[in-house]
Specification:
single chain; mainly alpha
Length: 89
């Protein structure tokens, strides 16, 4: 008799566990899931922000370096002619 009761209890437990998989989660469970998702999205956005901020700084430094380099190059007469022809078009 105890064995039958134990088997019945285990069967009911198994059915309850399977049923819980298809049960609509509570509002609290949904809120916790959404909070976790929001935290993951924030971390992704912060990583992207850091990456693109560094890319912007790199290109700003590059523009400054190249502009200084070009400003220090002696002007060649043909270079001025080329710039003038580009300005007209």
């Amino acid at each position: 008799m105890i064995k039958e009761t134990m088997e019945g209890f285990m069967l009911k437990e198994a059915i309850d566990q399977i049923a819980s998989l298809f049960k609509t989660p509570s509002a609290e469970v949904l809120a916790v899931r959404e909070l976790d998702e929001a935290k993951r999205k924030l971390l992704q956005a912060q990583s992207s922000y850091e990456y693109y901020r560094c890319i912007c700084e790199y290109n700003e430094d590059r523009i400054k370096r190249l502009s200084e380099y070009i400003a220090g190059i002696p002007k060649h007469p043909l270079q001025e002619t080329y710039r003038e022809s580009k300005a007209k078009t």
